[in-house]
């Protein structure tokens, strides 16, 4: 089976996806009161953001035009899900900025419920509310309560500008989320070095790290990730576009995979970075020398850590295994 047919047939899971960066550009253009180009400038070959602020600015058209109401979140999520199901994605964890929701007079519960209500048949949807490192001044008891008390929510995340080094301030929020039974994850090792991953593991007690690219800089940390079964939800083209790595050839995903770190592959912000999940997976084979068996392993890892029941997990794993030549 050729690469593209294999990737199309492969059951997929998208575990690291921000709605603010995933609303389809066509929907943003249709909703905008200002004229927008047919293609955003960030899709140009060789484009790189100058800094993290550029990413935040690129998310503003979606935030202003599509995510201003609960119905807007629902319409946006439905469009995202249509794109995912067309790629044979079976499971998605969609995150949204918790403070953004609250600051616009919406509730975490209403947005999480609205997103789940538009989930199409064949796609399991889980929601995460994200706190932001660069908005620690907005972290309040009311915000934590709203997140922890949201019945439709499945997990939390910590995202944003990691250079602010405010991880410790979110320890109580993560503790309360765990007590409530919410899944926890945090971004680390993207804009800062391996030490940020160590801090995140020690302070927030998560077993999933979003990105974690710079773990490769610390041999002891790589061994710890393997020993403790920590998962890195990696997004290679995001790291290229944000200059975390100079180019895809320099990305450590293959080295970390070979050393036994559990890795999943997602898109992060596909509308901003111009890569679908299918594109990401094909690129691993075409540009980094991954085999079809490697891709199957990555997707199996994704189903292994997905927030699903044992029967759904077993079915996904069996379908993945059936695509590989039997020994």
Topology:
Blueprint: H1 3-9, E1 12-18, H2 25-31, H3 52-58, H4 60-66, H5 70-86, E2 89-97, H6 98-103, H7 108-117, E3 124-132, H8 141-148, E4 155-159, H9 171-180, E5 183-184, E6 186-188, H10 194-204, E7 208-211, H11 219-228, E8 231-234, H12 236-241, H13 253-258, E9 262-265, H14 270-273, H15 277-288, H16 292-305, H17 310-322
Parallel strand pairs: 1-2, 2-3, 3-4, 4-5, 6-7, 7-8, 8-9
Helix pairs in contact: 1-15, 2-4, 5-7, 16-17
Strand content: 5-15%
Total helical elements = 17
Please write the string of helix (H) and strand (E) elements.
HEHHHHEHHEHEHEEHEHEHHEHHHH
The total domain count is 1
Total DSSP E strands: 9
Q: Which CATH-level-2 architecture?
A: Alpha-Beta Barrel
The span between the termini is 16 Å
How would you characterize the overall build of this protein?
The chain is an alpha/beta fold and 327 residues long. It has one domain (3-320): TIM Barrel, CATH 3.20.20.140. The protein has helices at residues 3-9, 25-31, 52-58, 60-66, 70-86, 98-103, 108-117, 141-148, 171-180, 194-204, 219-228, 236-241, 253-258, 270-273, 277-288, 292-305, 310-322, and strands at residues 12-18, 89-97, 124-132, 155-159, 183-184, 186-188, 208-211, 231-234, 262-265. The strands form 2 sheets. A 5-stranded parallel β-sheet has the order 1-2-3-4-5. A 4-stranded parallel β-sheet has the order 6-7-8-9. Helix 2 (25-31) packs across helix 4 (60-66), helix 5 (70-86) packs parallel to helix 7 (108-117) and helix 16 (292-305) runs antiparallel to helix 17 (310-322).
